[in-house]
């Protein structure tokens, strides 16, 4: 793996552990925090490991727009 991929992988593991630790808290905004961490992880995976950073701007906007729309819908349903 390249150095940037290794760093991204370590950050993703740290965010996953953070999500697990946050799930133990009883505050009302825990779900929102975990959802936002998941959005960050989704974007990191898409841009780093799926090579979206080299893609056409249309695809970048579509992926980020999708994840934001999905997040809003999930948060509204909750």
Produce a short descriptive summary:
The protein has 78 residues and is mainly α. The chain has helices at 3-22, 30-48, 57-77.
**Counting H and I runs of at least 4 residues, what is the number of helices?**
3
Cα gyration radius (Å): 14 Å
Given helix and strand content, the structural type is mainly alpha
Approximate strand percentage:
under 5%
- Uncertain ranges: none
Give the proportion of residues in helices. over 70%
* Overall average pLDDT: 91
Order of helices and strands: HHH
Overall body shape: flat
What does this protein look like?
By secondary structure, the chain is mainly α. It contains 3 helices and no strands. The mean pLDDT is 91.
Keywords:
single chain, 78 residues, mainly alpha, 3 helices
SSE blueprint:
Blueprint: H1 3-22, H2 30-48, H3 57-77
Helix pairs in contact: 1-2, 2-3
